[in-house]
Design goal:
This protein has 291 residues and is an all-alpha fold. It is built from 17 helices and no strands. It has helices at 4-8, 16-33, 36-52, 56-68, 75-91, 95-111, 115-128, 131-147, 151-154, 157-170, 174-190, 194-210, 214-230, 237-250, 258-268, 272-277, 279-288. Residues 82-184 form the Tetratrico peptide repeat group domain.
């Protein structure tokens, strides 16, 4: 192993517990190497695995440990520390405490010429802000990614387009949102990023529903369901929820919405985060499923 890029390859954001095991396996090597900065950076990512599992006290404790060892010789570790402290606050619903962390990370990232991490900071700051303010930060992140010569910065673009699209969606600017989601989808398909392309296709279909284009949205989500099954992807509760909403709007007597909502409830009710953050959504799914 030789540095940050290697340990970041251990990430699977959909499997934080497994990622944590891989990070823990690397700790003895880094502790023996004397590479203090990379060791601290790895610990910030280990903290993130706790944040993703809503283990906020463990994440903060690990970040407290990292903070004690930050020096002028570990600037990139400080940048990652700020990002993960902010993410932990944000995931716990403490947005007012998260925002200064992300603002400082943005400034640090620019100063250190760490464009990918500065983009991450701007992206996270946008997530914590109302849609009107989020637009400005998404646009800043996109501008930085577009002018950066670093590939890892440019790889942020499809995700940024998608997040900007959702901010526009919230503001009712549906045509602009749809164009950006299609742009994101095109990028993922061109680069062979199948799982991300599936999510982008769902997003396109969701905006079509909002525009009142029910039949195109229905066709897109059904095709997505088939494509995911053929690819061996796990069933997705959000997709079944969307199919249920579309089935209700279509009012097809031969294809009721209840079955779709039941599948959605069964899958999404397993999510501790959703149960904590959106209990009303789960209750509505159960009611519509007539369970």
């Amino acid at each position: 192993m030789n540095g940050t890029s290697d340990f970041m390859a251990c990430w699977d954001y959909d499997q934080p517990a497994a990622s944590a095991e891989r990070f823990l396996a690397l700790l003895p090597h880094l502790e023996a190497s004397g590479d203090r900065q990379t060791l601290l950076e790895l610990k910030t990512q280990l903290a993130r695995t706790h944040t993703l599992r809503h283990q906020f006290s463990q994440a903060h404790a690990l970040l407290d440990e990292v903070e004690q060892h930050l020096t002028e010789a570990t600037p990139r570790a400080r940048l990652r520390y700020l990002l993960e402290r902010g993410r932990t606050f944000n995931s716990a619903g403490r947005r007012a405490e998260a925002q200064p962390c992300f603002e400082q990370a943005w400034q640090e990232g620019l100063r250190q010429h760490e464009e990918p991490l500065a983009i991450d900071a701007a992206h996270m700051l946008a997530i914590t802000l109302p849609s009107v303010d989020a637009l400005r930060w998404h646009q800043r992140a996109i501008a930085l990614a577009e002018r950066s010569q670093r590939e890892e910065a440019q790889r942020w673009l499809p995700s940024l387009w998608s997040h900007l699209a959702w901010s526009l969606f919230d503001l009712g600017r549906l045509d602009e949102a749809l164009a950006l989601q299609r742009k994101s989808l095109g990028w993922y398909e061109a680069h062979g990023r199948q799982r991300q392309a599936f999510r982008a296709r769902w997003s396109v279909g969701r905006i079509l529903r909002e525009q009142g284009a029910i039949e195109p949205a229905w066709a897109m989500q059904l095709a997505l369901k088939e494509a995911m099954e053929q690819a061996g992807e796990a069933a997705d509760g959000y997709l079944f929820e969307e199919l249920g909403e579309l089935a209700r709007l279509r009012q097809d007597p031969e294809l009721g919405a209840e079955e779709f909502f039941a599948r959605a409830w069964f899958l999404l009710s397993r999510s501790e985060a959703l149960a904590s953050d959106e209990p009303e959504r789960l209750a509505r799914l159960k009611r519509l499923a007539k369970l």
